[in-house]
Structures are given as structure tokens and as C-alpha cells.
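Hello again, I could really use a second opinion on something today. I've dropped the whole record in just underneath, so have a look.
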Amino acid sequence: MKLSLACLGGALAVLLLPPTAHAACDVKVPGYELTGDQAQSVYDCLKAELQAGYQTGAKRWIPEDFVRDYPGWTAASAFPAAPGFHGGRFLVTYVNSVGEEEYLKYKPENVQIPAGTRIAKESFAVDDDGKVATGPLFLMEKVAAGTSPDTDDWFYMMVSPGGVPQAVDVITACSECHQGNFGEQGGLGYPAEEARIR
């Protein structure tokens, strides 16, 4: 699959966020060599701190319940998905009850994702030296048809590891990538195939 310039720009913008290092979770291999089990071990080490960090402070334009409730939603990946989009970070995906049935089909086309679907992706990075860093929480919400035609009725949001809402150009940093690369999937970038819930 080709990575569009919009995705590269969005990934670059996300990479500029300062990472938060976590030496206790470091591993002895580069991130690109981690197995699913090793990635899960890193996530298990980070999980409580990631979730607490995202919930710190006021969320301003981001609905508080979105950030508060997502850990109770359905996990859409069996282990952190290997790096790819979102600045080359490992991703742990959650989907709410409104969209879980359709999302978990991982359909390659003709996806009919219902309005009210919310998706959250926790993230972390592991560099070539095995150093671990927490990453942002990426959020998307399907809104009523016609609400946001420029983004195919998806709202995109992002929260830093310290809980601060991040101002991003959702057209160039999010929507162009989602629609350009996953438009036939309803704009959904699913977890890597090997990480999907069966």
C-alpha cells in the first residue's frame, strides 16, 4: 500500500510531539524486531500510566467521556499492532459498542459504520535501541451524515501522553490519509492483520 504525502505530513507532525521515555519498559531489541508477545509485554508495562496520563487535566474541545470511557470498550487488536501509520508507533485499538460489530468484521470495502461509532488508539514507540516512549491517544468519531462532508463525517482528535488536547489540521493530518488510503474501508485503518481479534 502506498503512503500518501498527506500521511507522511501527518506522521511528521505527530512525530514532533515530545516523547516521554520509560526506562522500566525498555527492551533489548529494536522496535522493528519485536514479536507480538514482546509488544504486549511493553504495553502491559505502560498501560496504567498511558491511560492515567491521557485522562489528566481538562480536555477542552474533546468530550471528557470519550477519553474516560474508552478503556472499557472492545479491544480490536489482540496485541499492539506493529508500527506503520501514526508516526511509526505501536497501536492498541478500542471501539465502542455502537461500532464494534461492523468494525470487527475488518471489511475491505462497503463498510457501513454507524454514526456514534468511536475509536481510540493508544500508542507507544520503541526505537532502534529498544528504548520505549509513550505516544498520543488518537481518537475518531463517526458523526451524523452531512455534519462534516470534508472528512466523510469523521471527527478526529488527539491527546498527548500528558493529557493535553492537541490542535492538529484534521484535513491534512488525519482525513486525507484515512480517506486516501482507507476510503473503501469507510476511512477505517484497521490493526495489522496478524494483530486483529479473531
